[in-house]
Amino acid sequence: MSLLLDLFTIVAVSGGLFFFLAGTVGLLRFPDTLTRLHALTKADNLGLGLIVLGLLPQCPDIVSALKLVAIWALVQLGGATASQLIAEFARRGGGER
Amino acid sequence: MSLAVDLVMVLLILTAAVWTILARDRRDAVIAFIVLGLLLSLVWMRLLAVDVALTEAAVGGGATGLVLLRACARLLPVEADGALPGLRLQVAVGVLCAVVGACLAAVILSPPEPAPSLAPAVAAHMEDVGLKNPVTVVLLAYRALDTLLEKVVLVLGLIGVWALAPDLFWGGRPASLRAAVPSGTLTFLARVLPPIGVLIGIYLVWNGADHPGGTFQGGTVLAAMWLLVMMADLGDPPETRALRLRRLVAVGPALFIAVGLAGFGMADGFLSYPPGYAKPIIVAVEVALALSIAVILGLMVAGPAAKEPDQ
User: How many residue pairs bridge chain A and chain B with CB atoms within 8 Å of each other?
Assistant: First the structure.
């Protein structure tokens, strides 16, 4: 059982890392602000989400697991708001250099 | 494996530091400085200094970065400023910085063997204080004078910021923090996040007695929530002459000094706690300090008064 859980952790965290890598490549390679933001949010949502999901079976107790989920939810909220603000600013034509 | 992680970390930090210095635009330099602060907090985590990591992320990356960004917004762009320092001055500054850096590196790289440490002495007397977080024990019991002076410096810093206001505006409101174009998204965040943020701030202060966390980290989170509300235009910065506000600024250091003076009568001297009552006193001082820090940081970001006081 613990082998299965460890395997689950490895697969999920690796998946999360893949999304972070893809998000970073997108951030560096995509042509404009909105597509770059799109890449970034993938890393935030799916990347961190999968890493948290993968770490859940390794938590010693339910409270630490809940803390991890809370961190993920807060990063979601912060990341989504920041992306919206940057996108609004970009659509008004700010920040073009 | 862990050596590789450390090396990557060092490279990233050096890059961020060089970027901070070389950036032509002030705002770019400040953003690089914020990145540097966040990377440094990761290094403190690697060194298992969780308290320092939290403070570095909250104050070094967050609060200081915000203050610097606000300062940038008030200054002219570098080009419009005209007088760039001459080559001779640039070289002199570079050489002086390099000498200071080299001296610091020499001191850090050549510690006496074995390195002097008071850690065992702190660990031996933890029970006398009644707290489980050694960092808080050092900050509020053994080196309480340093902590007290640090908070007094914060108050002096705020007075310095306020002193920048023209006579006409003295005691008035600081300039509004809201964005030029209101954003529904920001308003939404400013309505949803503060209850959670305030809870986390209180948790950090309360937790600081026995686990990593403390007044500065918790106070900074509280200040961030207040600033978020002001930025989303859900509340204006308060008048700097308001008596209640000034009381909040002073309550932390004032209580700390009062406790210190009480130490003459009830214990061994200034800032010593009566045996058995150390923990409740420290927690009370921490709560008052966190309130003061939150208000002071918020007011520092808001800046000097920019409007005439209401009649």
Answer: 18
Contact across the interface for B181 and A81, Cβ inside 8 Å: no
Helices B278-302 and B144-162 pack at an angle, to 10 degrees, of: 20
A97 assigned to some structural domain: no
- Nearest chain B residue to A89 by CA: give it: B181
Which residue numbers in chain B have pLDDT < 50? none
Tokens of A62: 């339910």
> Which of B181, B189, B196 lies nearest to residue A81, judging by beta carbons?
B189
The pLDDT of residue A10 is 93
Domain ranges, residue B15: 1-80
State the DSSP code for A45: I
pLDDT digits (tens, 9 = 90+) for A70-81: 999 999 888 888
Residues B254 and B301 grouped into a single domain? yes
ipTM: 0.82
- Domain identity same for B130 and B110: no
Structural domain tally of chain B? 3
Name the CA radius of gyration of chain A, rounded: 16
Tell me the chain B residues in contact with residue A77 when contact means C-beta distances shorter than 8 Å. Answer: 189, 192-193
C-alpha–C-alpha distance, residues A35 and A49, integer Å: 21
Domain end among B116, B134, B160: B116
CA distances from B197 to A74, B104, B201, B223 (A): 10, 38, 6, 10
Asked if the Cβ–Cβ distance from B192 to A84 is below 8 Å, we say no
pLDDT in tens, B258-302: 998 988 888 888 888 888 788 888 889 999 999 999 999 999 998
In tens, the pLDDT along A29-40 reads 888 888 888 888
| B189–chain A nearest CA distance, Å | 7
Q: Give the confidence band of A97 by pLDDT, cuts at 50, 70, 90.
A: very low
Q: Say what the pLDDT of residue B81 is.
A: 58
Interface residues of chain B, partner chain A, Cβ below 8 Å:
181, 183, 185-186, 188-189, 192-193, 196
Domain that holds residue A8: 2-91
